[in-house]
Specification:
Layout: E1 2-7, H1 11-22, E2 27-30, H2 39-42, H3 57-81, E3 92-94, H4 100-106, E4 115-118, H5 119-125, E5 135-139, H6 147-161, E6 164-166, E7 171-177, E8 180-186, E9 190-198, H7 204-209, E10 218-228, E11 237-240, E12 243-247, E13 252-256, H8 270-283, E14 291-302, E15 309-312, E16 319-323, H9 329-344
The structure holds flavin-adenine dinucleotide.
């Protein structure tokens, strides 16, 4: 029998499995579809919250812990698996001059570099932008990774570590007795484990509901489009009025994203595509001549304040949750995985756990 059974093979489940396995535990990961094909595939891979000063300190704390370790994680994974997830320090150029005061007040406490820039500095940094932005902010330390490649690397890494992965296997129920978890019921069989971790992203509340506790994790649809430019034509991540462009090393440029409350509906819409194309071309006029390669949608695991739930279930012993990472699950994933590992292994934690506790959530039943 496994020490830990993780439900959900997105980045949160994959990294939690890796961290637990590295600590010597025997881990099984159960995924309804293929590993990492939901929000973790759909995301942009920016390793920073957008406008981080707008987020609670707990989000920034998880992000900061991960940021200083991400490069090494990607290098370790490349060494182990041969898959390079393309950690790239592209920097983040924010064109919203009105954010200056809040950003500069936030930066020192988080030891983040945020530099005010004027129109000529914006042009020097990113000649592909139009010359109509009078001021902005430059965050040179912000990096990105290519999340689909990170998923590939983690898949291979878990295989090499001997983690048992069951894909195409939906967990239909959590099995508990006398308020203690015993395992899970999948569509095929019962699977027992000492401890169970729910890392089902936007679907986490569905599974936990039957235990009589509402967990406020809800789907928030995000649509993105992908263009192809020449490599280097655009060099930095650029953010403007809530929209962003992310240049990949091979010249592909992601443009995101929408925020839609439409339940578990992953359909793409013409309206969102047209809106994203319009804003993309306004931000980077050369995109008007670039070919659009793809349009997709993913369901973010939304939570009331963007702070994920990481810790023990308040009613059922040995049941844990690692979910609700909303817009920042890629950047927060390494810290979330380590924090949950610390909690389940009963060892000193990398940070204070109370902001992430499920019973800390005021909207929970
Ligand atoms: C458009 C968009 C852009 C984004 N951009 C960024 C960004 O730039 N930076 C950033 O940090 N974050 C970004 N995010 C957010 C980030 O992608 C998510 O927060 C993160 O991927 C959540 O990971 P997860 O593992 O919790 O969820 P998911 O990746 O959704 O994984 C959950 C998994 O659980 C499985 N599952 C569900 N129910 C069951 C069940 N009953 N049995 C078995 N398996 C089950 C699902 O099939 C799925 O594979 C973005 C998200 C979107 C949609």
């Amino acid at each position: 029998m496994a020490d830990f059974l993780i439900i959900g093979g997105g980045l949160i489940g994959l990294l939690t499995a890796r961290t637990l396995s590295a600590s010597g535990a025997k881990v099984i990961l159960v995924e309804r579809g293929q590993l990492g094909q939901e929000s973790s595939w759909a995301g942009g891979g920016i390793l920073s919250p957008l406008y981080p000063w707008k987020y609670p300190a707990a989000v920034n704390e998880l992000a900061a812990w991960s940021q200083v370790r991400y490069r090494q994680l990607i290098e370790e994974l490349e060494q182990a698996t041969g898959v390079d997830a393309e950690w790239t320090q592209s920097g983040l150029l924010i064109l919203d001059g009105d954010q200056r005061k809040a950003a500069l007040a936030w930066a020192p406490a988080c030891a983040a570099t945020v530099q005010p820039v004027d129109a000529s500095a914006i042009q020097r940094l990113e000649p592909a932008l139009p010359a109509n932005h009078p001021s902005g902010l430059w965050m040179p330390e912000v990096a990105q990774i290519r999340n689909p490649l990170l998923i590939q690397a983690l898949r291979e890494d878990l295989r090499l570590r001997g983690v048992r992965v069951a894909e195409n296997t939906e967990v239909t129920h959590l099995l508990s007795k006398k308020e203690r978890i015993r395992g899970v019921q999948t569509e095929y069989s019962e699977v027992m484990a000492d401890k169970v971790i729910v890392a089902c992203g936007a679907w986490s509340a569905t599974l936990l509901k039957e235990l009589g506790r509402e967990v406020p994790v809800m789907p928030v649809r995000g649509q993105m489009i992908l263009f192809r430019m020449q490599p280097g034509q655009l060099q930095h991540i650029v953010l403007w009025q809530g929209h962003y462009v992310i240049p990949r090393r091979d010249g592909r440029v992601l443009v995101g994203s929408t925020m839609e409350d439409v339940g578990f509906d992953k359909k793409v819409t013409d309206e969102a595509r047209d809106g994203l194309i319009r804003v993309a071309c306004e931000m980077v006029p050369a995109l008007a001549d670039a070919s659009m390669e793809r349009h997709w949608a993913g369901l973010r695991p939304g939570s009331p304040t963007g702070v994920p739930f990481i810790g023990a279930h308040p009613k059922i012993d040995d049941l844990f949750i690692n979910a609700g990472h909303f817009r920042n699950g890629v950047v927060m994933a390494p810290a979330s995985a380590q924090l949950l590992t610390d909690i389940v292994q009963n060892q000193p934690t990398i940070m204070e756990t109370s902001p992430f506790a499920l019973n800390n959530c005021s909207t929970a039943a």
